């Protein structure tokens, strides 16, 4: 009771276990890794809060993945996703799915609600407008692979 009165209790928040392999362009974020990946990373972080059963989330997924692949060589920006049916994050209010929130360079500031286009080009354009880091051009790896295939 003393801890309650002195505001020293911390809430229990559910969290899935971190994935064994997190090497995909879109990183998987769980409740336990939220602070490390968002606040301690030193990067701009766009977080997609989703539910696996959500139709809008399923529609957004390939566009979000494509944007992450195109930004793979940009060391300043992370695109991550959180399955909100298995994870909770203190202080983050999710009203519907998918919800995208952007934590910029200044981690003391409130996150910005993403309101850009929901395709890869729209996501990248919105990030260009909101990052405070120098912009690193998109990955051209896919183009190089296509050029190699055409020469064979």
Characterization of the model:
The protein is α/β, with parallel strands linked by helices. Helices cover 32% and strands 15% of the residues. The chain is built from five helices and five strands; from the N terminus they run αβαβαβββαα. The protein has a five-stranded mixed beta sheet. Strand 4 and strand 5 form a beta hairpin. Helix 3 crosses helix 4 (120-130). The longest helix is centred in the middle third of the chain and has 16 residues, at 55-70. It is globular, with a radius of gyration of 17 Å.
List keywords for this structure.
5 helices, 152 residues, single chain, 5-stranded mixed β-sheet, alpha/beta
Percent of residues in helical segments?
A: 25-40%
Percentage of residues in DSSP E strands: 15-25%
Radius of gyration: 17 Å
What's the helix count?
5
Multimerization status: single chain
* Model regions low in confidence, pLDDT < 50 over at least 5 residues: 143-152
Count of DSSP strands: 5
Q: What series of H and E elements makes up the topology?
A: HEHEHEEEHH
Cα distance spanning the termini: 73 Å
């Amino acid at each position: 009771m003393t801890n309650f009165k002195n505001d020293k209790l911390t809430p229990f928040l559910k969290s899935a276990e971190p994935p064994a392999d997190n090497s995909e362009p879109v990183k998987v974020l769980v409740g336990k890794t939220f602070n490390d990946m968002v606040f301690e990373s030193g990067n701009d972080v766009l977080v997609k809060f989703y539910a696996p059963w959500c139709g809008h989330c399923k529609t957004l997924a390939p566009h979000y993945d494509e944007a992450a692949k195109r930004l793979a060589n940009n060391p300043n920006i992370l695109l991550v996703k959180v399955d909100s049916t298995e994870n909770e994050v203190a202080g983050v209010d999710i009203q519907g799915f998918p919800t995208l929130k952007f934590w910029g360079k200044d981690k003391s500031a409130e996150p910005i609600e993403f309101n850009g286009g929901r395709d890869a080009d729209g996501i990248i354009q919105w990030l260009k407008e909101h990052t405070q880091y120098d912009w690193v051009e998109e990955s051209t790896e896919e183009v190089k692979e296509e050029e190699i295939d055409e020469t064979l």
